[in-house]
Design brief:
This protein has 116 residues and is mainly α. Helices cover 74% and strands 0% of the residues. The chain has helices at residues 9-25, 29-40, 44-70, 80-97, 104-115. Helix 3 (44-70) packs across helix 4 (80-97). The mean pLDDT is 95.
Length: 116
């Protein structure tokens, strides 16, 4: 999933969040991803695959944030690493525990909360 480029930081974060939430819930992705996470705790090879997967996803958010910084949409004092952790923290928490929805509305509210 490439980093979207809608022309605005808010639009890019919203688009990536919606796409991420939707893709992770479609069969066979959802059960496969949950199994990979569970098995990665026991298998070093799978743990490395999981790290590679998550790093590529984190890199997409970093790219979006950097473009936003270059356009003056992200203040210089904001910590991109923390924003990425917040972006994926909510995703993984809800994805793994299934206690609350990962829908488009949540994705948009998450993106907006990172920038407000």
């Amino acid at each position: 999933m490439p980093a979207p480029d809608t022309g605005t930081l808010r639009g890019d974060l919203r688009a990536l969040a919606v796409a991420t939430f939707e893709a992770a819930q479609r069969p066979p992705a959802a059960p496969a991803l949950r199994t990979l996470v569970r098995e990665a705790a026991r298998d070093p090879h799978l743990a490395e695959l999981m790290r590679t997967f998550t790093e590529s996803r984190r890199a997409a958010v970093h790219e979006i944030l950097e473009r936003g910084r270059q356009r003056g949409e992200l203040p210089a004092g904001r910590d991109p690493g923390l924003l990425v952790d917040q972006f994926y923290g909510l995703f993984w928490y809800r994805f793994l525990l299934e206690h609350a929805p990962l829908d488009a509305d949540t994705a948009i509210r998450l993106a907006d909360s990172l920038l407000d």
